Task: structure prediction
Amino acid sequence: MPAKLASSMIAAGFDSPGGPDVLRAETREVPAPGPGEVLVKVAFAGVNRPDVAQRQGHYPPPPGASPIPGLEISGMIVDLGDGVDAAMLGQTVCALVAGGGYAEYCLAYAEHCLPVPEGLSLAEAAALPETLFTVWHNVFERGYARDGETILVHGGTSGIGTMAITLGRLFGLTVIVTCGSEAKCAAARKLGAAHAINYAATDFVEEVARITGGKGLELVLDMVSGDYVPRNLKCLAEDGRHITIAILGGSKAKLNMAVVMMRRYTLSGSTLRPRSREFKGLLAQEIAREAWPLAASGELRPVMDRIFPLADAGLAHARMEAGEHIGKIVLEVGGEPE
Amino acid sequence: MPAKLASSMIAAGFDSPGGPDVLRAETREVPAPGPGEVLVKVAFAGVNRPDVAQRQGHYPPPPGASPIPGLEISGMIVDLGDGVDAAMLGQTVCALVAGGGYAEYCLAYAEHCLPVPEGLSLAEAAALPETLFTVWHNVFERGYARDGETILVHGGTSGIGTMAITLGRLFGLTVIVTCGSEAKCAAARKLGAAHAINYAATDFVEEVARITGGKGLELVLDMVSGDYVPRNLKCLAEDGRHITIAILGGSKAKLNMAVVMMRRYTLSGSTLRPRSREFKGLLAQEIAREAWPLAASGELRPVMDRIFPLADAGLAHARMEAGEHIGKIVLEVGGEPE
Result:
């Protein structure tokens, strides 16, 4: 750990919203940790859809958050704000952050950090928080998924999709995914999806009916929305839950409320970034207790797509927007320790 | 209690769906209680919207239920099926039933009966189960209403609306209702509604915003649906819940799923009649424990609109369809004991 911290750092930011090429290196002051915060020397930063939306100008950072994109990081804690346990200094962690991940240094709240266990690379560690927190909260807390239930996940090979398959497998859910090609379906099955439906070739509503013997399934984790919503509801059994975590297909949906009422459906959804510090802390606690032991045992691993250097953040975004990735795209900042 | 039961009885039924005048007296066999059932000599039967929908042909009875309308009754238990505690014979109860209430005798499951406490008339007792079970489940269980929260209820002077006002007042909720006239608004306020909005004169979305200082409220109990749904959602604070229990304004609703997701709304709903015997038994247990002591103490009373003789069931339906009632419409069958 350096005796004295650098005062400036490289980050990947943008002046005005636009295509992937608006992302470029900039020099910024290293931020100083406030009360309860830690400063992380970033090894890797995960790339997520909200980063793309932010760069496009559709998803401004919440009040107080860094204007630099990046919602998850791994690295070493090199400075502590007031009130943080001194034992954290020098720890290698991954963390959920409200922004600023695409940089050499990034602030995180101490309680939003998870220690990186032996055997988990720092590149993998940076690829976990955003999808792990999102899927955990929406599938198990908001969606009340229980052992033995069946869940439909769109975008089966996305970061979210691959995490949903992984957590589903580890926690006793039968996961059905949709993907846009046979190759992606094969990848999803290999990861543990019980069924992967190529939506380009097959109607997923009919496929789900066939797979479930007409009974329907308990939960849909939807990132498409729009006209998928009524189709998703047709996949649900009575008392089914429909959880929206993105609206990649548009926000407007037509619902038959008689069906919602008579089949006792529940529709909800959430986004993680604007949640309170306290909420994220409680979620991190639950994940540390319930899921993190599986990261330590090697059973919980992110599906890694590709690692780009920080300087190529624009290429990373272009890859995500093209939908070419399977699993997580990560930026290398400081990289793995020597 | 008669030494020997009559073998036939008068009921109010209909041959083919239609207007209120299709209801007419018919003679039926007195049903015999099966295992776990009791036979009630009906004193009064409550009239509910689903009875009207059934008579119109829109809401057929669930499999196994009587074709005679009527979802709630009061009266004396005069016969027991196998396995029912002998102490129930001769008890005066009210009960939720899956049909058959508009008749001199009606079957109920023993665990769906609540004893009529001293001070509660049998006419009032027959007016409680359907709205009490419906509001309790949807507001407190499905809608997670908690002390101090604010709830919007449409149809403030309906049976459901008046029960929601009453339970809200007893359990620490602030209840805002909408009604179709100043007279109904005044009646709702007198019952304990914190605010009553005349929807014919005022936009309820603007009124709720004004009342809540722009913050919105926690729960909407909706029986209108259709184009009320997006307007209801505009009344909700973050994490708000929207519970549909009827679709009097039509079933088709247009939703903005981005708003559902970003404000973390939950939409759900239910109907009571098709639920399992077990579910209704558990609900009755909870109500017996949490709400029924307030019926015994005199704090929980239904709002009584008018009592019609069983022979005038058609007039009772016509009154409900005209929306003239404030509170519950009840049919007198055997009437109060001498």
Q: What stands out?
A: Residues 180 and 200 of chain A are 6 Å apart (CA to CA). The interface with chain B takes residues 225-226, 229, 244-247, 251-262, 264-271, 274 of chain A (CB under 8 Å). The two ends of chain A are 13 Å apart (CA to CA). Chain A has a mean pLDDT of 96.
